[in-house]
């Protein structure tokens, strides 16, 4: 069996979850050491957020100038205990009652395999920086608490995206959570309804006239939660709340939407005779690279050398790459062959996955050969 596959199976069959990554972390520490990595350390992020393992950082030293960072996360979604992988017709899946955790232990196995292939090649190469995070599935908490001041790389790859090898996630949206509380006036519904003012109707008017869904080619909004009243039908409703979210690849568009949302809620409520109180908070920062960005060109060149078709596109969610970009790295996501992650149908195509070590190696070698070409 290929080493990348046996590493992967070893990691998915130990139990781990967000805040409880200890067993996977211990395997990773051991393997990084065996591979010849240096500067290996585990940070205190786990202690800060109530977990039993920290983010792990390491370097695989090279003799050529510069370095490239690769990252993957050690935690996994719930339903990730007692995983029994099944390999059939070139696909790894599970018996159907757990996830597979190829998201994201496939990414970790790919990084290890890339290091192994660099070593086996005997060729000079630049340094590889490796960051294995905790609690990615919990709002990117591990990468939030990592100290980036010691990172030497300018370019980073998060090996953490669904899809076949070749898919490059070059952008991810900024996001915000939004809500509006609507305050009306209670009154007996049967004897004096004219003395009341329905918050439910006011909120309904707000929602019915709010721009949402797809706002433009890079912005969306969604308000799926609507609650009102206190469970009784005999009083005019004095309270309602609507909750939702908005996303955009452009931070300014998101901020403009929030301004619009606040104004729309206030004015619609006033016109109807109720009051609205809006609240919002920003989620993890988004990022936006394009096909000309050094990180994307470098991955594209590596794929060309492998005969793999590059598929650069924007993603719709958050991943550690969001935080890496925010912290000054130019980071993109790379797919490792898994599909249907976060479900019991999660599976990984071996024809993609088995080449991800080579992908890592070629990115590093290409960077080493042409560092000037990939200056950020
Ligand atoms: Zn993931």
Brief synopsis:
With 376 residues, the protein is an alpha+beta fold.
Gyration radius, in Å: 24 Å
Work out the helicity level: 25-40%
Strand composition percent: 25-35%
Secondary-structure element order, N to C: HHEHEEEEHEHEEEHEEEHEEHEHEEEHH
User: Quaternary status of these chains?
Assistant: single chain
Tell me the distance between the termini. Answer: 39 Å
Q: What's the structural blueprint in terms of helices and strands?
A:
Elements (H helix, E strand, L loop, with lengths): L2 H10 L9 H13 L3 E5 L2 H5 L6 E5 L3 E10 L11 E4 L2 E4 L7 H20 L4 E8 L7 H4 L10 E7 L5 E6 L1 E10 L15 H10 L4 E4 L2 E10 L10 E10 L2 H22 L2 E8 L4 E2 L5 H13 L4 E4 L5 H7 L3 E6 L2 E2 L7 E3 H4 L2 H14 L7
Parallel strand pairs: 3-6, 3-7, 7-16, 8-15
Antiparallel strand pairs: 1-2, 2-6, 4-5, 5-18, 8-14, 8-16, 9-12, 9-13, 10-11, 11-12, 17-18
Give a quick set of tags describing it.
five-stranded antiparallel sheet, Aminopeptidase, 11 helices, nine-stranded mixed sheet, Alpha-Beta Plaits, single chain, binds zinc ion, 376 residues, 2 domains, 32% helix, alpha+beta
């Amino acid at each position: 069996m290929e080493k990348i596959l046996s590493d992967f199976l070893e990691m998915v069959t130990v139990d781990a979850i967000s805040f409880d990554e200890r067993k996977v972390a211990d395997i990773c520490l051991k393997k990084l050491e065996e591979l010849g990595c240096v500067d290996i350390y585990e940070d205190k992020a786990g202690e800060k957020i109530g977990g039993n393992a920290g983010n792990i950082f390491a370097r695989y030293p090279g003799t050529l100038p510069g370095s490239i960072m690769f990252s993957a996360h050690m935690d996994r979604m719930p339903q990730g205990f007692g995983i029994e992988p099944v390999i059939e017709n070139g696909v790894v899946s599970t018996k159907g009652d757990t996830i597979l955790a190829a998201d994201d232990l496939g990414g970790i196995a790919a990084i290890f395999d890339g290091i192994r292939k660099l070593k086996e090649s005997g060729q000079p190469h630049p340094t590889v920086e490796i960051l294995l995070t905790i609690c990615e599935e919990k709002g990117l908490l591990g990468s939030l608490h990592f100290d980036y001041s010691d990172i030497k790389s300018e370019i980073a790859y998060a090996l953490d995206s669904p899809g076949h090898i070749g898919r490059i996630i070059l952008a991810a949206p900024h996001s915000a959570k939004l809500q509006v509380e609507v305050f009306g006036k209670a009154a007996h519904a049967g004897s004096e309804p004219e003395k009341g003012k329905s918050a439910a109707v006011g909120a309904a008017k707000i929602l019915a006239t709010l721009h949402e869904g797809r706002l433009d080619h890079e912005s969306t909004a969604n308000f799926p939660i609507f609650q009102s009243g206190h469970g009784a039908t005999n009083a005019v409703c004095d309270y309602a709340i609507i909750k939702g979210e908005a996303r955009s690849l452009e931070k300014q568009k998101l901020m403009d939407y929030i301004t619009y949302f606040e104004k729309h809620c206030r004015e619609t409520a006033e016109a109807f005779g109720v009051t609205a109180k809006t609240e919002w908070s920003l989620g993890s920062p988004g990022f936006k690279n394009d096909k000309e960005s050094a990180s994307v060109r470098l991955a594209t060149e590596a794929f060309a050398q492998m005969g793999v078709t590059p598929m650069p596109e924007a993603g719709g969610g958050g991943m550690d790459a969001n935080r890496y970009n925010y912290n000054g790295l130019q980071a993109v996501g790379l797919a490792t062959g898994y599909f249907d992650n976060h479900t019991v149908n999660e599976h990984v195509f071996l024809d993609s996955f088995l080449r991800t070590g080579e992908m890592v190696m070629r990115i590093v070698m290409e960077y080493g050969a042409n560092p000037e070409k990939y200056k950020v």
